[in-house]
C-alpha cells in the first residue's frame, strides 16, 4: 500500500498518534473503530499505519500489522482474517511475533451502495464477535464512515460492547489552528465548535421532525460575558483543586491508564505554580493554562464529556482569556529573569514534544468559540452533578459566540467566522426550546445565513450542506411557533424558505458518500413539503413529500437505523393518507390508502422492537392512523369492497384501536410519569393521555357500529367478542 500525500491537521495527527500508540501496546483482544468520512484522508492514515507497524522491530519475516479489504459480496471480517491466516501460516519459532498480527479492515463505507441484505449481513457478522474472538488475539481495527459508526452502535451492540476505543478523524482541510474534531450518533453530526467543525452534516443536532401526523420541532443579544474579575490568580487555586480532585478520584481506582492520563495535567499545574512564583509573563501563564485545558478537551473529544471534565476545561480557558486580557503594561518593561526564561523554554519544549503546534496560543476568537462550546455542552449535561440551569449555560454560550464574532476582522480566516456563526445558530435554536422561540430561531436563521456567506459549496460541500440543513430546520421551526406567525402567509414564507434550503443542502450531499446524512435531509424536505401542503393544499407538494420520504428510505433502512426508518415510514404513511383524502379519485384513493397502511405497518413493526426513548414520533398515534385507514377502506361506499374484504379491514381497524386505547390507559396508570415523559414528547400532560384514550374509545364505538351496519348482529357480536372485559362497560354505554 502506497502512502498518499496529504497535509494532515494537528488534530488528526494527535488522534493518529493515540491510535498508533494504542495498537503498539500489542495487547490481547484490542478492538478499535476508526471513523473517517474523508476517504482520501482515510487511505493516507491507513497506509501510514501499515507502513509504520507492519514489520516494526520484527526479528523475523512475518508481518505485525495487516491491511485487508472487506469482501463486499460476503462482508465477513472474520472470514477475511481467517482466509489470510490460512494463506500465511505463523512461524513455528517462539519469537516476539509468534502471536497473530493485528488487522485493519477497510472498505465498509462501500456497503451503503449495496442492498439491505448485504448491509444486514455485515452487521450480523459483527454481532457474532464472541464466536470469533480467536481472531482478535492481538488487534482488530475497523475503518468506517460516521454513518456506519452509528449503525454499528445501534444495530450490532454485541460488537460495540467489545470495543476498546473509538477514534474519530475530522475532514481536511482543517479549520484554524487549535481545532479538534468530534461527531455523533447514527451518521448525523453536531457542528458546534472548533472541536466539532469536521465537515459533517449537523443533522442530529437539528431535531428535525420525524412525525408525519404532526411534525414535532425539536433574541435580544445577551450581554458580553464577564471574565474572571481581578487578577487571574484569584481563580487558579479553585482550578488546581478541581484538577487535583479529578486526578485523585481516578488514581484511587488503581488504574494505570488513569495514572498516565493525569501525568500531564499534574505536571502542568507544577509549571503554573513555578511560573506564578517567578512572576513570569502573562502570555506564558496563558499558554500553560491553555495546555491544561487541552488535556481535558482531549478527554471530551474522546467521549468523556463529564461535568467534571467540562468544568475544568471551562475554568482553564477562562484563565487563558483572563491572562491575555491583562494590561500588558504590567510586564512590558520587565526583563524576564533567567529562571523565568528557562521555565518558559522548558514548558514550550514539553508542549512541542507532547503535541505538534501546541506551543503557541490560538486567536482569542477561537478561544471564545471553544469556551462557548463547552458551555453549550454543559447546558446539555443532565447528570446529577450538574445542578445549573441549562438556560444560563446557553445564554453564556451565545454571548461568547457573539463576542468571538466581535473579535474577528477582515484578516480573520473565514472558517473562524463560519464556526462561530454555525455554533451561534445551534445554541440559539437550543435556547428557543426554553424561551423566546421566535426571537431565538430568528437569531439562528441570521447566524446560519452569515455562515453561508463565508462557505464555498464547491470547496466545502459538506459544511455548506450542513449549514443549509440547519438553516432550513430553523425556518421550519419558525413556521411552527411564535407570535408574529399568526398570519398563514408568514408561515408559508418560512416553509418555502425551508424547502429551498433543504434542496440546496441536497445538491451538495452525495448519497454514496454520506447516505444517512443525505437521507436525513430528504426526510426533512418531505416534512417541509407536507407541512406546506397543509397551508396551500397541493397534490404536487404532497407527491413531492412522498417522493422525498421514499428516497430517504433507500438509505434509512430498518437494518441500519431502525428508529430513523420507523419515523420516515410514519411520515410516509401520513403523506399517503392526506393524498388519498384530499386530491385523488376513487381508484387512486384506494391505492394510496393501501400504501398508507403498508407504511404505517412498517413504522409500527419497527418501533415495536425498539425502546420507546429511541423514537421521535408517537407510536400510538401512528397505530391510531393505521386503524383509521383500515376503517376508511371498509366503510367508504366509493370503494365497494366485498363483505370479506370489509370484515378484514374492520377487524384490523378494531385491533389497532383497542391497542391504542389500552396503551393510553397504561400511561394513565403509570404513577409519577407524565405522558410526555413516557413518549419522549414535549409539553404533554396526563390530561392529554386521558383525552386521547377517550378519542380511541370513540373510534372503537364507530368501528363496532360499522360491523353492525355491514355485517348485521353477527358482525357486532364478533366485534364485541374482541373487546377486553374491562373495556366492555364503557363501550356498551356508548353503543
Strand order of the largest sheet: 2-3-4-1-5
Q: Which CATH architecture of the domain at 10-90 and 97-172 is right?
A: 3-Layer(aba) Sandwich
Structural class: mainly alpha
In angstroms, what is the radius of gyration? 29 Å
CATH superfamily of the domain at 10-90 and 97-172: P-loop containing nucleotide triphosphate hydrolases
How does the major sheet shape up? 5 strands, parallel
- Estimate what percentage of residues fall within beta strands: under 5%
Overall pLDDT: 76
CATH topology of the domain at 10-90 and 97-172: Rossmann fold
What's the total count of β strands? 5
Terminal Cα span: 77 Å
Helix tally? 26
The CATH C-level name of the domain at 10-90 and 97-172 is: Alpha Beta
In which range does the helix fraction lie? Answer: 55-70%
- Which stretches are poorly predicted, pLDDT < 50 over at least 5 residues? 1-7, 172-232, 251-259, 328-333, 671-685
Amino acid at each position: 500500500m502506497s502512502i498518499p500525500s496529504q497535509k494532515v491537521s494537528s488534530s488528526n495527527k494527535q488522534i493518529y498518534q493515540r491510535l498508533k500508540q494504542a495498537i503498539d501496546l500489542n495487547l490481547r483482544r484490542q478492538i478499535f473503530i476508526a471513523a473517517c468520512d474523508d476517504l482520501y484522508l482515510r487511505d493516507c492514515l491507513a497506509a501510514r499505519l501499515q507502513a509504520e507497524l507492519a514489520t516494526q522491530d520484527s526479528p523475523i519475516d512475518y508481518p505485525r500489522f495487516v491491511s485487508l479489504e472487506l469482501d463486499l459480496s460476503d462482508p465477513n471480517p472474520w472470514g477475511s482474517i481467517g482466509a489470510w491466516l490460512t494463506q500465511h501460516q505463523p512461524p513455528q519459532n517462539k519469537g516476539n511475533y509468534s502471536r497473530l498480527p493485528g488487522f485493519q479492515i477497510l472498505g465498509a463505507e462501500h456497503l451503503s451502495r449495496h442492498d439491505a441484505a448485504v448491509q444486514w449481513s455485515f452487521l450480523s457478522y459483527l454481532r457474532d464477535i464472541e464466536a470469533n474472538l480467536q481472531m482478535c488475539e492481538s488487534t482488530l481495527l475497523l475503518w468506517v464512515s460516521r454513518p456506519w459508526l452509528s449503525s454499528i452502535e445501534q444495530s450490532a451492540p454485541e460488537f460495540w460492547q467489545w470495543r476498546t476505543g473509538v477514534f474519530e478523524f475530522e475532514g481536511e482541510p482543517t479549520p484554524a489552528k487549535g481545532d479538534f474534531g468530534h461527531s455523533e450518533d447514527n451518521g448525523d453530526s453536531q457542528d458546534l465548535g472548533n472541536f466539532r467543525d469536521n465537515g459533517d452534516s449537523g443533522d442530529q443536532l437539528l431535531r428535525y421532525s420525524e412525525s408525519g401526523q404532526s411534525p414535532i420541532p425539536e433574541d435580544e443579544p445577551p450581554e458580553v460575558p464577564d471574565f474572571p474579575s481581578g487578577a487571574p490568580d484569584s481563580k487558579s487555586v479553585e482550578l488546581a483543586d478541581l484538577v487535583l480532585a479529578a486526578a485523585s478520584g481516578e488514581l484511587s481506582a488503581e488504574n494505570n491508564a488513569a495514572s498516565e492520563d493525569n501525568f500531564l495535567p499534574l505536571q502542568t499545574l507544577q509549571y503554573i505554580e513555578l511560573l506564578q512564583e517567578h512572576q513570569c509573563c502573562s502570555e506564558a501563564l496563558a499558554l500553560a493554562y491553555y495546555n491544561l485545558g487541552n488535556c481535558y478537551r482531549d478527554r471530551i473529544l474522546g467521549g468523556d464529556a463529564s461535568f467534571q471534565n467540562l468544568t475544568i476545561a471551562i475554568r482553564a480557558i477562562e484563565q487563558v482569556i483572563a491572562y491575555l486580557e491583562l494590561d500588558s503594561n504590567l510586564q512590558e518593561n520587565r526583563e524576564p529573569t533567567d529562571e523565568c526564561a528557562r521555565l518558559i523554554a522548558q514548558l514550550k519544549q514539553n508542549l512541542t514534544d507532547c503535541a505538534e503546534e501546541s506551543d503557541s496560543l490560538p486567536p482569542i476568537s477561537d478561544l471564545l468559540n471553544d469556551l462557548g462550546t463547552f458551555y453549550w455542552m454543559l447546558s446539555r449535561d443532565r447528570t446529577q452533578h450538574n445542578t445549573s440551569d441549562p438556560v444560563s449555560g446557553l445564554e453564556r454560550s451565545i454571548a461568547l459566540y457573539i463576542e468571538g464574532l466581535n473579535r474577528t476582522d477582515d484578516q480573520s480566516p473565514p472558517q473562524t467566522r463560519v464556526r462561530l456563526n454555525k455554533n451561534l445558530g445551534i445554541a440559539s435554536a437550543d435556547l428557543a426550546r426554553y424561551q423566546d422561540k421566535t426571537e431565538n430561531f430568528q437569531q439562528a436563521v441570521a447566524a446560519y445565513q452569515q455562515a453561508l456567506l463565508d462557505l464555498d459549496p464547491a470547496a466545502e460541500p459538506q459544511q455548506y450542506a450542513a449549514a443549509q440543513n440547519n438553516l432550513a430546520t430553523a425556518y421550519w421551526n419558525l413556521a411552527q411557533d411564535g407570535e408574529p406567525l399568526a398570519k398563514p402567509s408568514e408561515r408559508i414564507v418560512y416553509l418555502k424558505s425551508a424547502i429551498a434550503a433543504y434542496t440546496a443542502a441536497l445538491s451538495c450531499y452525495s448519497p454514496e458518500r454520506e447516505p444517512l446524512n443525505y437521507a436525513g435531509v430528504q426526510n426533512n424536505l418531505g416534512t417541509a413539503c407536507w407541512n406546506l401542503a397543509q397551508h396551500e393544499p397541493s397534490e404536487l407538494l404532497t407527491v413531492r413529500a412522498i417522493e422525498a420520504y421514499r428516497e430517504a428510505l433507500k438509505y434509512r433502512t430498518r437494518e441500519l437505523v431502525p428508529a430513523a426508518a420507523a419515523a420516515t415510514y410514519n411520515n410516509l404513511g401520513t403523506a399517503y393518507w392526506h393524498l388519498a383524502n384530499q386530491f385523488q379519485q376513487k381508484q387512486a384513493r384506494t391505492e394510496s390508502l393501501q400504501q398508507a397502511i403498508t407504511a404505517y405497518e412498517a413504522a409500527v413493526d419497527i418501533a415495536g422492537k425498539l425502546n420507546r426513548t429511541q423514537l421521535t414520533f408517537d407510536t400510538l398515534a401512528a397505530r391510531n392512523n393505521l386503524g383509521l385507514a383500515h376503517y376508511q377502506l371498509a366503510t367508504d361506499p366509493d370503494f365497494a369492497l366485498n363483505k370479506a374484504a370489509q370484515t378484514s379491514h374492520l377487524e384490523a381497524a378494531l385491533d389497532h384501536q383497542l391497542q391504542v386505547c389500552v396503551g393510553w390507559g397504561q400511561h394513565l396508570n403509570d404513577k409519577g410519569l407524565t405522558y410526555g415523559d413516557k413518549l419522549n414528547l414535549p409539553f404533554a400532560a396526563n390530561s392529554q393521555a386521558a383525552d386521547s384514550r377517550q378519542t380511541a374509545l370513540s373510534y372503537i364505538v364507530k368501528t363496532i357500529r360499522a360491523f353492525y351496519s355491514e355485517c348485521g348482529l353477527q358482525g357486532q357480536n364478533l366485534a364485541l367478542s374482541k373487546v377486553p372485559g374491562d373495556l366492555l362497560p364503557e363501550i356498551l354505554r356508548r353503543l
